[in-house]
Write a structure and sequence with these properties.
It contains 27 helices and 22 strands. By secondary structure, it is of the alpha/beta class. Helix 8 packs parallel to helix 9 (256-267), helix 12 (351-365) crosses helix 13 (388-396) and helix 20 (625-644) packs across helix 21 (659-668).
Length: 820
C-alpha cells in the first residue's frame, strides 16, 4: 500500500541521514528575522502539493507531526489520522468566538476533505473580499483526484470528492479551506501570501514551547535522495502575526524578540550544523548568485517553517507555497505598475480589488465539472471607466475582453492605459497559465456604448460574464437612458438607474459580478438573478459586491454571513451612524455660521484693506491627470480655509480655466466656491487684486513664494497689508529641482521669497510643500497675536504656524530603514 511505501522510504532516508553528508560551502552569517507587516511579503516558495506524489515534503511533514504527538495521543496513528489531528488542533485553537461547535452535522464530511491553511493579506476592510476569493479558489481546485487504489476502496483512510464546500475563517488573514492542489487560481490569487501545512497548535506559549522543544530535539530531519546522493535542504523560519491582539492582554504574550530567539535555536536542530540557516533565517537568498547550482537547488527544496501567532493561539507549520512577487504577472508588481498608468480616474477600481473579483469569477467558471476554458469566455465590463477590470481579466487569461462606456474620453483613457500596461512602459505580463489565450488581441477591446441599450456583444450568453463597477456617488455622472426611451421619464435617481442597468445586463450573460455603492442583492433576486451572494466590501458601508452564478454545475460558491468578518447589515448600520453624526455636525456648523452664510465671505474680504491677500497661480502645465486631480483637491482645501477666515483672507485662483476648472467642477463642486474665494481666468499679474493697487505701489509689493528663493519671508513682510503673495499651483514631481516658480517670478518682475522651513526646522524632510499647506501656514502665522512674538523672529509666528500645520511625519529626518 501507499502508506507502507511511505514508511519504508522514511526509514531508508533516516538510515542514510546518519552517513557523512557531502561537503557544503561555508554557511553565510545568520540574518535577523522579523515579523511580517500588514502588507509584508512572504518569501517565495515553489508549489508543493500535499499529495502522496510529493514524497519527501510529505514525509518530513508526517515525521514532524509524529514527533509532536508522541506522548499526547495514541501511538500507531496513520498518516491521514495524524494530518487530521493537526488540522483539528488548529481549528479548535484559532477559531473565532462566534464559530459553531466542532460536533456539527458536517463534521464527518469536513474530515473527508484534504485541507490547508491560507495566509492572506491582513487588510481588515478587504477581509470579506479576500474570504470570497480564497473560498472560490480553494474550493474549485480542492476536489480530490487521488490515484491511490486504497483511497478509492476505503474512504476512511483517504479524502474523497463530494459537493460539500469546506471553508473556515480563523482570524483576520488566516483561513482553513480545501487544499487547492496547485490550482492556477491559487497561484494568482490577489490576497494569498502563503499556503501552509500545520504541524501542531497550542493556545498558550508555555505549552507551545514545550511541544516545539520536543519536536525539534529528536534530531536532524532525514535528507532527500538527489542524483544518487543524500541532500539536506537548507531551512528557514518565518514569524507571522496574522491578527491584532484585541482579546489577549500584552502580558499574556511572549515578546517577539524572545519568541524568535527561542524558536530559531530549536528549529535549527532539524538541519545539519553545516546546512541550517545557510541563506539566513528567512532565506531571502540576498547577496548570492541566483545562477549557482547550489542556490537553484536550495530555492526549489528549502524547507520554510512558519510560526503563526493569532490572538488566541500559536501554530507551528511548514509552508507549501508562497507566490513570487517579483514575477511580471504578480498582483503586487501589477498593482504598482497600474498605479502609474497615464490616464487616471478618481472613482476607478483598485487593481487588487479588481484582480480578486476577477479571480473569484474565473475560479467558479473553471470548476472541476466544467470543461470551459477561460480563453473561450467573453468578459464584458459595460462601465469600464479607466479599464481596471478589463486589464485584470485580460492578464488572468480571458480570451475576448470587451469594455464599454458611454463617455468618449473614458474610452480613450482605457485604451491608453491598456496599451501602456501590457507594453514596455510597465513591464506587466499576462499570467503564464495553460488557460491563457494564445490567440486574439493582446489588449482588451474598448468601444463607446450606452449600457441602457440592449446591445448583444456576444451570441452565446452561456460563455459570457458581466463584471463591472456600477457608477455611483455624487462625483460620477451616471448616463441615463437615451432620449425617447420610455424608461427615461421614470428614472430620476441613482437607485432607479441601477435597477435599469441590472435589468438591461441580465440577459447578456449567465454569470454577473457587480461593485456598487448600495446593496443590490435583493433587487437582483427580484429581477431573476440566480444564486446571488452579497458582501460588504467596505466595513464603513460605502461599497458592496454582489455575484450571481447561473451555471449548470452543481458546485455553486456562495459567501454567507458565516464566512465574513462584517455583514452587510453591520456595514449599513455603521454607515447610518456615520451619516447621522455627519448631519449633526453639519447642523451645528450651520447654526454657528448662519449669519456668516447670509453674506459672502469673499465680499467682506474685498472690502477689507487689511486682509491677507493670496493668489494661487494655476497657469502651470501638468504632466498627468493625477497631478490635475491633486491640484483640484488642494484648491478645495484652500476654499475651506477661506470660508473659515470670516473676511480677513482674500484668496484668488488665477488662470482658473481649462482642465483644472473641469477637474474642480466635476469632482469637487467648484461651482459652490464663489462665496469664499475668487476664481478668475486671468493670469496672476492681471488679477484685480494686483491691478487695483494704490498709487506709489509697484510690483515690489507682489511677493512670489518659491522654495528655490534665496531670501526667507519675514513676519513683517507677511503682515504688511500692502503686500500680495503668489503661490505656484503646481505639484508635478518632475519639476522638483528645476526652480520653476522662481523663474516664473523673475519673468513677471516679482520679488521671490521662501518660507523659513529649513531655517526653523533644519530636520524637516523637505521644504517643498503642498499648495494648501502654504496657504494655511500664511494664514496661521498672519493671525498670531503680536504679543505672542519673541524678539527673535525665528521663535515667532512662523514657528508656531509650523507646529500647527506641517505634517508630523515630516517633522524630522527618518532613518533609511523606516523609509522602505
Amino acid at each position: 500500500t501507499n502508506e507502507i511505501r511511505m514508511m519504508c522510504a522514511l526509514a531508508r532516508r533516516t538510515m542514510s541521514a546518519k552517513t557523512t553528508p557531502r561537503s557544503i560551502p561555508t554557511p553565510l552569517g545568520i540574518k535577523a528575522s522579523s515579523k511580517s507587516s500588514k502588507l509584508g511579503r512572504f518569501p517565495a516558495v515553489p508549489m508543493r502539493k500535499t499529495s502522496r506524489k510529493c514524497e519527501y515534503f510529505e514525509s518530513v511533514l508526517d515525521e514532524l507531526r509524529r514527533r509532536s504527538l508522541r506522548g499526547i495521543s495514541e501511538e500507531g496513528l496513520s498518516l491521514v489520522e495524524r494530518e487530521r489531528t493537526a488540522f483539528e488542533e488548529v481549528r479548535r485553537s484559532h477559531r473565532r468566538l462566534s464559530a459553531r461547535d466542532d460536533e456539527d452535522k458536517n463534521e464527518r464530511r469536513r474530515q473527508r476533505k484534504r485541507r490547508s491553511l491560507y495566509v492572506t493579506l491582513k487588510n481588515e476592510n478587504l477581509y470579506n473580499l479576500y474570504a470570497m476569493e480564497t473560498m472560490a479558489c480553494s474550493t474549485t481546485g480542492g476536489m480530490n483526484t487521488s490515484d491511490d487504489d486504497e483511497g478509492k476502496e476505503d474512504n476512511k483512510n483517504d479524502y474523497v470528492e463530494d459537493d460539500f464546500v469546506f471553508f473556515d475563517q480563523l482570524s483576520i488573514g488566516l483561513f482553513m479551506a480545501q487544499d487547492s492542489h496547485g490550482s492556477a487560481f491559487t497561484r494568482n490569487a490577489a490576497s494569498l501570501r502563503a499556503k501552509v501545512e500545520p504541524i501542531f497548535s497550542e493556545t498558550s506559549w508555555e505549552t507551545f514551547a514545550e511541544r516545539l522543544e520536543k519536536t525539534c530535539s529528536e534530531g536532524v530531519l532525514p535528507g532527500m535522495e538527489m542524483e544518487g546522493e543524500d541532500y539536506n535542504p537548507p531551512i528557514a523560519l518565518i514569524y507571522e502575526t496574522v491578527a491584532r491582539f484585541q482579546r489577549r492582554e500584552e502580558s499574556q504574550r511572549k515578546p517577539s524578540d524572545e519568541l524568535l530567539q527561542f524558536c530559531t535555536k530549536r528549529v535549527k536542530q532539524l538541519s545539519p550544523a553545516d546546512v541550517g540557516y545557510k541563506y539566513g533565517v528567512r532565506a531571502t537568498f540576498a547577496g548570492v548568485d541566483p545562477r549557482e547550482p547550489d542556490v537553484v537547488r536550495a530555492k526549489e527544496h528549502a524547507l520554510r517553517f512558519v510560526i503563526l501567532e493569532t490572538e488566541t493561539a500559536y501554530t507551528f507549520a511548514l509552508a507549501s507555497y508562497a507566490p513570487d512577487t517579483s514575477e511580471a504577472h504578480s498582483v503586487v508588481k501589477s498593482s504598482l505598475a497600474w498605479a502609474q498608468k497615464p490616464a487616471n480616474y478618481s472613482s476607478g477600481t483598485r487593481f487588487e480589488v479588481a484582480r480578486a473579483l476577477v479571480n473569484t469569477v474565473a475560479a467558479t467558471l473553471a470548476s472541476p465539472k466544467s470543461s470551459t476554458k477561460l480563453s473561450e469566455i467573453t468578459f464584458l465590463d459595460p462601465f469600464c471607466g479607466s479599464g481596471t477590470l478589463c486589464v485584470a481579466a485580460k492578464q488572468l487569461g480571458f480570451g475576448n475582453v470587451i469594455g464599454s462606456d458611454a463617455t468618449g474620453h473614458l474610452i480613450e483613457k482605457s485604451q491608453r492605459n491598456a496599451r501602456w500596461f501590457f507594453g514596455a512602459a510597465s513591464g506587466a505580463q499576462a499570467v503564464p497559465s495553460e488557460q491563457a489565450s494564445s490567440s486574439g488581441s493582446p489588449f482588451p477591446r474598448f468601444q463607446q456604448a450606452n449600457a441602457f441599450i440592449r446591445t448583444s456583444f456576444t451570441s452565446d450568453p452561456s460563455k459570457t460574464v458581466v463584471v463591472s463597477n456600477l457608477p455611483f456617488g455624487r462625483n460620477v455622472d451616471f448616463v441615463a437612458p437615451p432620449p425617447g426611451d420610455e424608461r427615461r421619464s421614470s428614472s430620476s435617481s441613482t437607485t432607479s438607474h441601477l435597477q435599469l442597468a441590472l435589468e438591461t445586463l441580465k440577459p447578456l450573460a449567465r454569470t454577473h459580478a457587480f461593485i456598487s455603492g448600495v446593496p443590490i442583492g435583493e433587487e437582483m433576486i427580484k429581477l431573476g438573478y440566480e444564486n446571488v451572494s452579497q458582501i460588504a466590501l467596505d466595513r464603513r458601508g460605502k461599497t458592496f459586491i454582489a455575484i450571481s452564478f447561473s451555471n449548470d454545475d452543481d458546485t455553486i460558491i456562495k459567501v454567507s454571513d458565516e464566512h465574513v468578518w462584517f455583514t452587510v447589515e453591520e456595514a449599513l448600520l455603521f454607515d447610518e451612524i456615520r451619516q447621522a453624526n455627519a448631519r449633526k455636525r453639519a447642523a451645528m456648523r450651520k447654526n454657528n455660521d448662519e449669519k456668516e452664510e447670509d453674506e459672502k465671505v469673499i465680499e467682506i474680504a474685498r472690502s477689507n484693506p487689511n486682509a491677507l491677500k493670496v493668489i494661487v497661480d494655476l497657469s502651470y502645465e501638468h504632466d498627468s491627470a493625477r497631478a490635475l486631480r491633486s491640484v483640484a483637491k488642494q484648491l478645495c482645501e484652500i476654499t475651506s480655509v477661506g470660508k473659515k477666515s470670516k473676511g480677513d483672507l482674500r484668496v484668488t485662483f488665477a488662470s482658473f480655466a481649462g482642465d483644472i476648472k473641469y477637474e474642480s467642477e466635476t469632482f469637487f463642486n467648484a461651482d459652490t466656491w464663489s462665496k469664499h474665494v475668487e476664481m478668475l481666468p486671468d493670469p496672476a499679474e492681471e488679477c484685480d487684486v494686483v491691478a487695483c493697487q494704490e498709487e506709489g505701489q509697484t510690483k515690489n509689493n507682489v511677493i512670489y513664494l518659491s522654495p528655490d528663493a534665496e531670501t526667507p519671508l519675514s513676519l513683517s513682510e507677511l503682515r504688511d497689508p500692502s503686500n500680495i503673495f503668489v503661490v505656484g499651483g503646481i505639484v508635478d514631481l518632475k519639476t522638483r529641482g528645476m526652480k520653476t516658480s522662481k523663474k516664473k517670478a523673475s519673468s513677471l518682475g516679482f520679488q521671490s521669497r521662501k518660507l523659513p522651513v529649513k531655517t526653523l526646522r533644519p530636520d524637516q524632510t523637505h521644504d517643498v510643500l503642498n499648495i494648501d499647506t502654504v496657504v494655511k501656514i500664511l494664514r496661521s502665522a498672519w493671525t498670531m497675536d503680536e504679543r505672542q512674538e519673541d524678539d527673535d523672529e525665528k521663535k515667532g509666528g512662523f514657528h508656531r504656524a509650523f507646529d500647527e500645520v506641517l505634517p508630523k511625519r515630516q517633522g524630522k529626518e527618518k532613518p533609511k530603514r523606516l523609509k522602505r
